[in-house]
Write a structure and sequence with these properties.
With about 210 residues, the chain is an alpha/beta fold. The protein is about 25% helix and about 30% strand. The longest helix has 12 residues. The mean pLDDT is about 95.
């Protein structure tokens, strides 16, 4: 399985394209604005079809490019139901951005829940619910490769904002401890913004949430 990191959109949100050329399949985790122009050449070069789009949470910077991706590929969309309003009626976010965003609704094909198991690219993937930054924030954990894609719950030496609508610091703190810090220490954490980190590094050095 190959991993391609493509920061995109107005605030350079990380999009993660996972490809398996042997199977000819791919999965995209999050779809910031204008991401399709960055992932299309990779799909063509590796002769992969985008099968699914996984949304870590419904904030606009992770979903602005979703409608275009789905139109171009027919990919199934997976997300958590607590962010249904943000994903399917994104105009609610436009109100907070003075209508500056061009947001299109996206229909979700599968609503996932805590501890649900997915199969993708020949791998088993565990879903963990990590609310607090956004009600429906989830992480996708690949146990075989030791990788967790966590959205905006946790960053290198930082955590997601909790001052936005639906944010709750105590909820996020609890979720990080229970859902991220309980992963194996060597797990590589792929956040929605910025560089990668590890569970061990954040448990040791993150001053915002202690184990």
């Amino acid at each position: 399985m190959n991993l391609h990191v493509r920061p995109s959109g107005l605030i350079q949100t990380n999009a993660y394209l996972l490809t398996n050329p042997e199977r000819g399949e791919a999965v995209l985790i999050d779809a910031p604005g204008e991401v399709w122009a960055k992932v299309q050449p990779i799909l063509e070069a590796e002769k992969c079809e985008l099968k699914e789009l996984w949304i870590t949470h419904g904030h606009w910077d992770h979903t602005q490019g979703a409608a275009e991706v789905v139109r171009e590929t027919g990919a199934r969309v997976i997300a958590h139901a607590d962010d249904k309003m943000l994903i399917e009626t994104p105009e609610v976010m436009n109100r907070f951005m003075e209508d500056k965003l061009k947001l299109e609704p996206v229909s979700v094909d599968q609503w996932v829940e805590q501890s649900e198991k997915l199969e993708a690219l020949g791998a088993q993937v565990e879903v963990r619910h990590v609310p607090g930054h956004c009600p429906g924030n989830v992480l996708f954990y690949f146990s075989e490769t030791g990788a967790a894609f966590v959205g905006d719950a946790l960053f290198k030496a930082s955590i997601g904002r909790t001052d936005l609508p639906g944010g709750d610091f105590e909820q996020l703190e609890r979720a990080i401890r229970e859902q991220i810090y309980t992963l194996p220490l060597k797990t590589i954490v792929y956040p929605g913004h910025g560089p990668v980190t590890t569970v061990k590094e954040e448990r040791t050095n993150n001053s915002h949430v202690r184990p």
